Amino acid sequence: MKTFAYFFCLATIIATPAIACTGITLHTRQGTTISARTIDWSREENDNIYIVVPRGHQEQSLLPDGTQNGMKFVAKYGYVGLGAERPEIVLDGTNETGLNAALFYFPDYGEYQEYDEAMRDISLADFQVVSWILANFSSIDEIQENISNVRIINVYPDAATVHWRITEPNGRVIVMEIINGEPTFHEDAIGVIANSPHFDWHYTNLNNYVNLKAGDAAPLKLGTDTLKSFSRGTGLLGLPGDFSSPSRFVRASFFSNMIIEQPDGPNTINQAFHILNNFDVPFGTVFAPGTEPVKMPSATQWTIATDLGNKILYYHTMYNRTIRKIDMNTIDFETVPFQFAPLDDVKTETMIPIQIKQE
Fold it and tell me: What CATH number was assigned to the domain covering residues 4-342?
């Protein structure tokens, strides 16, 4: 049984608000799917880690009483993910079939079922759902068929609810939300996710931007004068630029669906990181002066992009923008030990000096 101190530490991290997680989906010309996202915590730095889980690894859910006596599950599939604080908290990961699952904050709009001690054996903490999905399933259909076998619960009363994006290597993306205690699935045809409000609200809101387009706005004649663009890209005049969830959803939808498809995985991964650079959150924009954290360089603690067809995870962090990768093809999930380690060995940016030739 875990100690109360351990549970309290875990619950505090889950209760800490994430302000601006944004997810996108890209595709290569070869048809490979790239699933990418930012992870944003604003109040304090997490112990950010990667996790490697072998087949046969057993996990058990935490419960509201602070014990780890909830639902048990054993990994049918091995998987790799990025998480925070403890290996139970996998925030974004991919299993050996290429299925990706990711958690995004969904405050004030989701509603889980109340914890029932009589149903302890099927009770699953919301921040362990990603692990449950990756350990057990190879398709969205399988998840939908089995979701009624679990009760997703909140183990800490002050924590915000979450929702989940699930992506298949063939490009199908769904968003799962728990509304009035019931799981609701939304097909995500544009491959974008942010935070609250409900996913279908974000989709409807996109209609407010139907005038936006790639390229330049055409000249406009007013009286005897003609108005012309000052610069390139004026077709997107009116695109919201703030860091609210609705604005990020709109911005991510246009950026990720207007790009020029790249030929292969590495080039598309690079493209995904460039797009998501637009969603790094400067502290000064989301905190009143004098209240912002001073020990962290960014509210965006890490960014991940995963090639689901080739099963390679890439990430960089707020400390080091050098892209690192975990190639799942090099892992034998039958024999690899369960393990986790920090995302950064050293929390310092990689800066390479340029040697200037002297005459």
Answer: 3.60.60.10
